[in-house]
Structures are given as structure tokens and as C-alpha cells.
Q: What sequence folds into this?
């Protein structure tokens, strides 16, 4: 607990000025104010509850929502006492705009993922892999590789759960294999998400901020690949070559599944085009993509019940469901990860509220001027393993330190892959701990942290080498 408080105390000032430049108030003298210090302590306490979510069974959005509201009360009271009654309103509107763009983008992405899940896209892929009769070592490599190449399009959480289900189905009672496969999947999913704007929330924020353009993310493809390959090669020798009995269960994709996948790719293309060619927010392009799905859902609703056949032949080994309910777009929207979306609101508003008390300049100077950008960006990645990488990256983007394009790519890389160092360092790791309780644990992952750290260091060195001209 002391370590949590220590790192939270270190992080809190780093976050303090996030997206608060809209106010004309001179905040230099507010860092030592009572309400400023109390706000930092409140954020530390709220984030400690987030870190302990699994132990407390308290949804992570609840403490940060409370903290955000109280912190902004303190901001308004402070600014009113300084004779600036409208400054807090200007500042919070700026933060709300930041959140709205992120919220709309993620809501559409989550809706598409839910739609593909309901159409059995992921189940069909899982059953195909399980029925191939691969050896454990082959499954180890296949699931890790697929985690690496799927997470740039889908989020790393969905990818990890999908590949984790494959490893669990094949591994059966082989706990050692499942644990190693899960570690490999977490590393692969996080590494794959680092070189794509759609792979992680942090890369999405970097892209939406305009710091790194869409095509420039691929400059860190090879460093990301190295980040996964180095620990995977080391863990490979601990995997048995045993070939378990293949499963005969088979899922098939429902009507419209392939077309929904195509519409998702079209939506991503639309978002990229909005940003690159029309200079509009990517979230606006994603909302247009939601319109694509909306019209297609109308088509499915009118045709599905007419065309759906139920195969009751037990010799076909195909798993079908009973006649389904009509496809409903709004049910897919309702299934979005609302706890996660509200958590982002709380974090952005907390950070934005602390911004008004003026802590960031000092920490920015310490990290990026005194230590240097390379060291600072490596530290950002390590912090991402202990504290969620979203507020860390949000703070860095707000600091806007004066550094080269190569350094911006470096912090994008480290914030994305640093979470693999610990099982609690990423959403993928936390989710898999929940799906394999007692098998994939914090301590199980920690045993391989030195190997993962070797991959982390190798990815940084690879970036510094192949992108030396950008540094």
C-alpha cells in the first residue's frame, strides 16, 4: 500500500495541469494552497481505490467520478475567491470537449465489437483454432501472434479475452501452459496495440491530439514486434510439445457477420479520412460509421428471421442457437463498457481539475529538462505498469514537452508496452487474471517480469536504432 501511495503521489503532480490552458488565471501560486493540496490527496485516495478494484469489488468509475466533482468544486471556489468567477467554467468546458471526442470514438468502436461478438465472429475464430489439433507450443505462438495482429484493429482487452479463451480450451488442466500462454497474449496484445491509433486508448489520444499522424505509428512496428518476440522466444522453451485432443465443437458466424466486419473497416477508414483530409475530429467519422451499422441493422432486422435455419443434426458437430431475436443496434450500444467510459470521464476531469492548481510545470521541468526526454519517456512506460497508462499519457500530451518526433514515438511505444511488465499494468492483464483465477496470477506474471523487461529494453533500443534519424 505504501508503494501505491508513493507512486500515486509522484504521479499526481505530473497529471496536474492536464488540458487546463483555457483559463487566464495565474495558477503559479496555487500549488501550496490548502484546496490544491487537498485535491491532490483526494485524487491519490480515489486512484488507490481504482488500483484495489479487484480486492474491494468497487467499480473503478465510482471513486474517480466522486473525486472529479469535488475537485471542480474546489477549483470554482478558489477562482471565485481570486475574482475570476467564470474561469472554472471555461476550463471545465475544455475538459468536457476532450472527453466527448474520446467518448464518442470509443462508444462506436465498442458497439462494433459487441456486434461482431453477437454475430459469432470471435467464437467462430476460437472454435476453428481449437479444432485444428495444434500442439501446445504451436498454440502458444499462434495465440501470441494473433493477439499482436488483431489488437491494432480491435482493442487489446477484447483480443486478450478471445485468445485467452483459445488457450484455456486447448490447455485444459495444464496450468503451466495456460499461465505462460496468458503472459504471452498480454505482451502480444499490448505490443500490437502500440503501433496503431486503434490499438490502445493512449495511441488514440496521441493520434487525436495530432502529435503523431496515422501512417507515422508504423515507424514503431518493429520495436513493438521486438517487445513481443524477445520474451516469447524465452518462454517458448518452457512450453511442452504435447498435442491435446482437438475439440469437435464448432461455431458458425451468423447472417451479416462478414458485412459487419467490412463496415467496421469502412468506419475506421472514414475516421482516418476525416482526420487526414477533412481536418475534422476522428470521432465525427466514427459516428458516421455508426450510421453505416444502423442502416445495416435495419436490413438484418427485416431479413434475419426469414433466412435463419437451425441445424439440429447432431452429427454435424455444429453449435447453433435457437431462432435469434432481431438484431438491435441499441442493445449493442447498451452493452458498451460503461464503467470504462465513465472511468475515463472521472480521470480526465480529475486531471483537468488538478490542472488549475498549477503543479505540472515543475514536474515537466524535472522529467524532460533535468532528466532528459529519453529517460523521462522510459520512466513513463514503467509508471504505466503501476498506474493506468491513460492518465500518464494524458499528462504527457498536456505537458507538450519540447522534444523531437522520435521522442514522441518513443513515449507512445513505452506507454503502450510498459503495462506488460506487471499483470495489473494493462486492461488485458487484469481481464485475464479474472478469467483464470488461481492460474494466471500477479505472482505468476511477476516471475517472468525480468524476461519481459528484457523485451521492453530491447524494443527501446530497436527504436533508438532504426528511427535514429527521427530523434
A:
Amino acid at each position: 500500500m505504501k508503494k501505491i501511495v508513493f507512486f500515486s503521489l509522484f504521479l499526481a503532480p505530473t497529471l496536474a495541469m492536464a488540458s487546463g490552458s483555457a483559463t487566464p488565471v495565474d495558477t503559479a501560486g496555487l500549488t501550496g494552497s490548502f484546496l490544491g493540496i487537498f485535491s491532490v490527496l483526494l485524487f491519490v485516495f480515489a486512484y488507490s481505490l481504482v488500483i484495489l478494484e479487484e480486492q474491494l469489488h468497487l467499480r473503478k468509475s465510482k471513486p474517480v467520478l466522486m473525486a472529479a466533482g469535488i475537485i471542480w468544486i474546489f477549483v470554482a471556489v478558489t477562482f471565485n475567491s481570486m475574482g475570476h468567477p467564470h474561469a472554472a467554467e471555461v476550463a471545465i468546458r475544455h475538459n468536457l470537449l476532450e472527453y466527448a471526442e474520446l467518448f464518442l470514438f470509443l462508444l462506436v468502436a465498442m458497439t462494433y465489437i459487441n456486434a461482431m461478438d453477437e454475430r459469432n465472429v470471435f467464437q467462430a475464430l476460437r472454435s476453428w483454432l481449437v479444432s485444428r489439433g495444434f500442439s501446445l507450443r504451436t498454440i502458444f505462438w499462434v495465440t501470441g501472434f494473433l493477439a499482436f495482429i488483431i489488437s491494432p484493429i480491435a482493442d487489446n482487452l477484447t483480443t486478450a479475452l478471445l485468445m485467452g479463451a483459445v488457450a484455456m480450451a486447448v490447455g485444459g488442466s495444464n496450468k503451466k501452459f495456460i499461465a505462460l500462454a496468458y503472459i504471452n497474449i498480454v505482451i502480444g496484445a499490448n505490443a500490437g496495440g502500440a503501433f496503431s491509433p486503434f490499438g490502445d486508448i493512449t495511441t488514440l489520444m496521441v493520434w487525436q491530439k495530432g502529435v503523431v499522424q496515422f501512417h507515422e505509428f508504423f515507424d514503431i512496428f518493429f520495436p513493438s514486434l521486438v517487445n513481443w518476440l524477445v520474451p516469447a522466444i524465452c518462454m517458448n522453451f518452457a512450453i511442452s510439445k504435447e498435442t491435446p485432443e482437438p475439440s469437435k465443437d464448432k461455431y458458425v458466424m451468423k447472417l451479416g457477420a462478414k458485412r459487419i466486419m467490412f463496415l467496421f473497416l469502412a468506419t475506421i477508414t472514414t475516421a482516418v479520412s476525416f482526420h487526414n483530409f477533412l481536418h475534422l475530429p476522428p470521432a465525427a467519422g466514427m459516428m458516421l460509421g455508426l450510421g453505416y451499422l444502423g442502416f445495416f441493422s435495419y436490413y438484418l432486422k427485416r431479413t434475419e428471421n426469414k433466412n435463419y435455419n437451425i441445424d439440429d443434426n447432431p452429427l454435424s458437430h455444429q453449435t447453433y442457437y435457437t431462432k435469434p431475436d432481431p438484431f438491435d443496434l441499441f442493445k449493442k450500444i447498451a452493452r458498451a463498457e460503461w464503467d470504462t467510459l465513465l472511468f475515463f470521464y472521472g480521470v480526465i476531469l480529475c486531471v483537468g481539475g488538478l490542472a488549475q492548481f498549477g503543479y505540472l510545470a515543475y514536474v515537466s521541468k524535472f522529467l524532460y529538462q533535468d532528466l532528459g526526454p529519453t529517460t523521462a519517456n522510459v520512466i513513463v512506460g514503467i509508471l504505466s505498469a503501476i498506474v493506468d497508462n491513460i492518465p500518464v499519457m494524458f499528462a504527457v500530451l498536456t505537458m507538450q514537452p519540447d522534444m523531437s518526433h522520435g521522442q514522441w514515438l518513443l513515449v507512445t511505444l513505452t506507454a503502450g508496452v510498459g503495462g506488460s511488465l506487471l499483470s495489473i499494468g494493462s486492461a488485458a492483464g487484469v481481464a485475464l487474471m479474472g478469467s483464470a483465477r488461481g492460474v494466471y496470477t500477479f505472482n505468476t506474471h511477476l516471475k517472468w517480469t525480468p524476461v519481459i523487461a528484457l523485451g521492453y529494453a530491447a524494443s527501446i533500443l530497436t527504436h533508438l536504432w532504426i528511427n535514429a534519424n527521427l530523434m
Strands lie at 250-251, 318-319.
